[in-house]
Amino acid sequence: MIFYKLSNDLRDEIRHLRTLGKRIGFVPTMGALHQGHISLIQASALKCDVTVCSIFVNPAQFNNAEDLKHYPRTLSKDLELLAGFKNLLVYAPDEVSDVYKTDEDFAIDLGNIGLVMEAAYRPGHFNGVMNVVKRFFDLVTPDITFFGQKDFQQCLVVKMLIRHYGLPIQLEFCPITREQDGLAMSSRNEQLSSAERAIAPAIFKALLHAKEQVPVLSPHEIRKQVLNELQTYPDLLPEYFEIAETEYLHPVESWDDALNIVACITVRLGKVRLIDNIILK
Ligand code: PAF
Question: What is the DSSP letter of 255?
Fold first, then answer.
């Protein structure tokens, strides 16, 4: 593993790798790395000669100053975790200005994806994601980029971004990595108290329950059932549970409305916001 703090140094190395004809994979992260991130790096290592992993808590995608302040930052632990990886370049800038060299706005109109679920609950969030991801793409110029399917809506946003700018980047969605009890791995899990951590697997249980009911119950009935089920946990507050087609996240009323359908959920557990999803068909 080689560690870069400065984008100019990384850019020089990438130019050099290109002259050698190397295939470059890219895994963007905000640090506090866990097995989910490692699985993305491993997926990249299988298909690319060199992987670039960024570790950068992007202020532009936080719509809540407290959330940004408390977001876990564990750089030395992260670097320890990555130390043994070969052909891995880690870009972890000290300064926001190393990423945001200009104030150009790369956000695009996302249509329905920019209106629902995360976009509705975190205004401006995806504009921040698009701005940082586009800057990273321009810096790293990856052949393939790897994103975790846990952030399903983000995956669709990045797909639209790549399409809009005509970037020659292949996008791979990687499966959600879960704890043994089903909780989707997330840097935010660290922020749960032990009582909250004990409740958290209820989220995936509810998603599994939803999937079991397809196609016997309608999307509307499943939604009602899941929200009722989650209400039995006093500390767990669902923000949304939506059943939608997988391309633009339009809600579906019947299982025949679309070929592929996903259930997406976000809950608040104490002060922590947790997100998860499951493909229903
Ligand atoms: O998914 C994340 O961790 C972030 O949104 C990303 C893609 C690294 C951009 O800051």
Answer: T
CA nearest ligand 1 atom 1, residue: 29
Q: CB-based contacts of 198: which residues, under 8 Å, 6+ apart?
A: none
pTM: 0.97
Residues labelled as active-site residues: 37
Testing ligand 1's pocket by substitution, the residue of 26, 27, 30 carrying the most ligand atoms inside 8 A of its CB is: 30
* 68 and 142 both lie in a single domain: yes
159 and 212 together in one domain: no
CB atoms within 10 A of CB 222: 23
Containing domain of residue 52, as a range? 2-174
* Mean pLDDT for back-to-back runs of 10 residues, the chain (281 residues): 98 98 98 98 98 98 94 96 97 98 97 98 98 98 98 98 98 98 96 96 97 98 96 94 98 98 97 97 97
